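step=predict obj=Cation diffusion facilitator family transporter n=326
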Amino acid sequence: MLKRELRVILISLVVSLILTAVKFIAYGMTHSVAILSDALESIINVVAGAFASYSIYLAGKPKDENHPYGHGKVEFFSIGFEGAMIFFAGVLILVKAVQYFIFPKELHKMESGIWLLGATTVANLLLGIYLKQSGKKLNSITIAGNGQHIMTDVYSSAGLIVALLIIQFTGWNWLDPAVSVIMGLLILVNGYKLMRRSISGLMDETDMQVVDRVITILSAHRRENWIDVHNMRIQQYGNNYHIDCHITLPYYLELNDAHDEMKRVEVLVNKEFENSEVEFFIHMDPCIPSCCHYCLKAECPVRSHAFTGEITWSRDNVLPNRKHGV
């Protein structure tokens, strides 16, 4: 899978390099600060693609003594770096726009510039769709983040083309730096979002969508010996996950039987998480009398209370560090 990820990101890098060159050609022809803004953002695509290539290579290295959970965290550094670069590009674009407001330049060959920008926008659209689909299929946050950035570039370029067409037919040249200001602000927001996601991953912020997915899998295949699941914590390392949790089992199970139950959990979740490795660290809790009223085990030899109803597993009772009903 590592080779596939590298191939995808290298395609992105080469295409972004070509499109960036075309945009700078369009700027040289037109002297439009808005087109320059788009070209500056595209430089970030190239730099981010190069950094992403290295991060994917590093994330694919096996675990070792110094990195017992693998090297996947580097992907969060990758999207954080990309976000910081995008943010810097937004600031640079705003500075350039203000300069053009104060010292306006005459625009040239707008029609040719619009055609070139239109061609790069279509190419970026196809690249963005390819990256987002590949990121989802390969479960790579680096590729998905790169695709998100490319799609943002597509939207801003499309808006820019509309503005340039208005300038072409009306002669309102003041729109050129005005549009550049809007683009700069949008780019700042996008850069902030990527940096925010990077910090969340590095700080091991819980991804509730992954929590819900794990809970759904365990609920759908619930066994009578799995009395409850609690104190669940999920950490992401690249496209792999480490899950800590407590599972309450009948206290009289032999060690081999209890181990087999935990192995079933690990195999089950890994089977459902395609293209990812899920490592479990499960603490086994013995049941207590207060568990009897929701225990599903029909033939329990030590039941002290009648069964009153099944407890549905959810974030509310799976994440806290306490047995259900206690």
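step=describe
The mean pLDDT is 83.
step=end
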